[in-house]
Design a protein that fits this description.
With 225 residues, the chain is an all-alpha fold. The protein has two domains: 49 residues, Orthogonal Bundle (Arc Repressor Mutant, subunit A), CATH 1.10.10.60; 160 residues, Orthogonal Bundle (Tetracycline Repressor, domain 2), CATH 1.10.357. Helix 1 packs across helix 4, helix 7 crosses helix 8 and helix 8 runs antiparallel to helix 9. The model has no long low-confidence stretch (mean pLDDT 88).
Length: 225
């Protein structure tokens, strides 16, 4: 049961409305070109009122990242249904399912994908260090991925390696591949979903997965209704 006062609830609702409007604008305009005046207009606030909720554009973007990363982390916290009794095949199936989940979320949440691409994958810095409240949410997300990788190594499905480094390579490799959607009309091989699936497969092989076990894991996953 929430113990927030009516005033706190109203403030939370107003912040959520501003964040929702900002997410829509990020998909339409990108982060770099977006202004606080545009966000205020889309949120039906004056610029002065907007600054009472977020003191800067960077703080607003960071709050939006915190919310969206937390949602992604919640999705990744659920394991896929077990597919077989072989611990190696099962561990690989869980990693493939995790990759499928990330790809599906990218398709279903294009605005969130645009936010991540425009902030985390852009060399330009849009959030100052003092405004970066989203960092713990990003760490939680990467930790969930690293935990699955570590579990696979523990049963011998993958070779020994730093699961945190592997999680970074996987997550940001997928993010980079998914940016190629704009080039798909030029070459069907650049379909981002296809490339992202291939990346997961190739990374798992590179991390020591047995090709036969990996194939069995994919087959078992595809047989799930």
């Amino acid at each position: 049961m929430s113990h927030d006062s009516p005033g706190q609830r109203r403030r939370a609702q107003r912040r959520a409305r501003i964040l929702d409007a900002t997410l829509t604008l990020v998909r339409q305009r990108g982060i770099a070109a977006l202004t606080m005046s545009e966000i205020a207009e889309a949120s039906d606030y004056t610029p002065g009122a907007l600054y009472r909720y977020f003191p800067s554009k960077g703080s607003l973007i960071s709050a939006l990242l915190q919310r969206e990363l937390s949602k992604l982390s919640e999705h990744l916290s659920t394991r896929a249904p077990a597919v077989c009794d072989d611990p190696v095949v099962e561990a690989l199936a869980q990693l493939l399912a995790l990759g499928d989940t990330l790809r599906r979320l990218a398709r279903e949440r294009p605005a969130t994908l645009a936010l991540l691409q425009g902030s985390l994958a852009d060399p330009a810095r849009h959030v100052a260090d003092e405004d970066a409240i989203h960092t713990p949410a990003l760490i939680r997300l990467l930790t969930r991925i690293a935990d699955r990788i570590a579990a696979a190594s523990a049963v011998g499905a993958l070779s020994t390696g730093d699961p945190s480094e592997r999680a970074l390579s996987w997550a940001f490799g997928l993010l980079g591949n998914l940016q190629l959607a704009k080039l798909q009309p030029l070459d069907a091989r650049l379909a981002p979903d296809r490339l992202a699936g291939r990346l997961t497969h190739d990374l798992l092989l590179g991390w020591g997965a047995c090709p036969r076990a990996l194939g069995s894991a994919r087959t078992h996953l595809e047989e799930i209704p």
